[in-house]
Predict the 3D structure of the following.
Amino acid sequence: MNNETVIFEKIAIAVAFSPRCEAILAEARLLQQTFGSKLVFIHVGKKSLQEEQYLKHLLHRFGLDHTLNKIIWREGDPVETILEICQTEKIDLLVTGALEKESLLKYFLGGISRQLSRKVKCSMLMLTEPNIHPTGFKQIVVEGTDHHKTENTIAVAVAVAKSYHSGKVHIIQETDLSKLALIRSEELKENEADFRKQQLLKEEDEKLEKILRCTDCGDLKLAVERIEGKPGYVISKFARDCGADLLVVSSPDKQMNLLDRVFPHDIEYALSDLPCNLLIVHPKDLD
Amino acid sequence: MLIVARLFGEFFRKLKMPLVVGELVAGVVLGPTLLGNFYPEFSDLIFTKNMNASVALSGIVNISAIMLLFVAGMELDLSLIRQQGKAAFTTSSLGLIIPLGLGFVAAYFFSGYFGNNSSDLLAFSLFMGTAMSISALPVIARTLMDLGLFRTRVGSIIIASAMLDDLIGWILFSMTMGMLKGSTSHNVFFTLLYTVSYAVLMLTVGRILINKSLPWAAKNFSWPGGFLSLSLGMAFLGAALTEYIGLHAIFGAFIVGIAFGDSVHVTEKTKDIVTQFVTNIFAPLFFVAIGFKVNFIVNFDLQITLLVISIAIIGKVSGSTLGARLGGLNNKESFAVGFGMNARGAMEIILAILALQAKLIGEELFVAIIIMAVVTSVMAGPMLQWLLKTKVMVDPEKS
């Protein structure tokens, strides 16, 4: 592992004392070793001597109990409290555990991890299968859709992949042609419709090529693929089908609410059924 | 009818006008306006002598309207509306409320100026409001594409706003038609209740069920032929259900179309097959048949036509422009949004024919609305180009 590119200087870990708590701390240690980050452990709930001792024991066990790291205990609404801490502590990356799929009711009401992902103003890593012996991310799928955040998202994904020596990085251009169907219904000739489609796709390709030219990919194996379909859904399906262990997407442009779950789009497709670990990249300059 | 419609459609397309204009003109040529007027015996022999032909034509018109609205529903992208946020919401709200209000007030207080229409003043006024507020997505999308604005912020706002306006417009129209049924069980409250309940149920539970069942259907049916049967079958079921509960059949098909179009399992290719099937067979028949309904020369009234065009343009352009301005766009972009949203196209024509069939409007007003739909569709492109000083995309045949 190398830590030449510090992309996450300060990482917050949401600690919930769940059965996966140990595995999440193990993953946190790997993140710290990889990126040389400072860690902030956040627990929202009443402080009890038993839990305090247990956390100290775990941190000691994983070698995370040095003075650079910080533990914050707070009472209050878990989501709001964690969001507030992330802002005051200037966190670059929030790490939480997350179930692949929540019950329908919980999904619509919003579990803590998913609520955070919709509101947080920093990048967020949702770990669906944290491992007590983490191995990093070997196969990464990245969103390469034509959007102003994509350049930063690809840069972060590439840096993560380089740091973890990932085997392969798939950059997926999701192409939603539903708007193009509107024009087809206006009776274009076949070659005319195809010409318009090609023109749109060519523009997207050129933008992505430019981004990749400007990104230092080193020895990474990059595979650029275009998939037609609903953005968010197709990349999520691709990540599941190819057995990726990390899906990297841009943060949503606006805060998602209940209506976005009823009429899902983009990241909501991934959140409804996480295909693997999910890294939501939030550009720093947007804060 | 189909061949003449295609010939006229292609001719008008060469003149850079919407295909629907050519199809309408084909109807005018074949209908009572020209052929029926100059060669009545010949016209009778083909179209009216055999009563069965008239019944069949009427059936085709009804089926076509249901299918057209199903396709219009499939084109609607609810997530796009959600994504565009404040600018789309304000553009859409004011782009709906102002023309709706203007149309309603004009019809309610000055109904005498609009010719002989339904005596149900409330339903007639509501219809006029709706007719002034609806927009034509395909015309708008094509215009934006021609001007290279399709993927810009302005373009996305125009499309999302037009989609929202259409959704609300068809709900309003369905309610208006429900009110016309006249029985006590179809008062405003129940019509509203049925409309909203049907829309909410279909767009939530129905949409999820359709999305879940499509992979199974794709696995077990021949595809995309199976989709064609399944989706159109569901559209007719939805149409039958809404007709049964006292709403108009087209509303049922429209909402089923939205539910199908939103599914992640429906690809562009699949949608394209349904769209091509409907727009190349049923749409031309529908628009030609419109020409059979009315004598366009006898029923042309300059005063009504100018009045309708003025209200339509003033209401829609001012409302959408104001909305876009409040949504954060600059003056020029806001005017571009206003004129983009002003295109009415085929949807307006469908609305008008259904109102004519229901005897909600008279023939003079019908002709005026058709002319307004054509004028607003044709003027959208040049106005957008002038306002945004964009270049029209290169024609592939010339490139």
In short: Chain A has two domains: 1-134, 135-287.
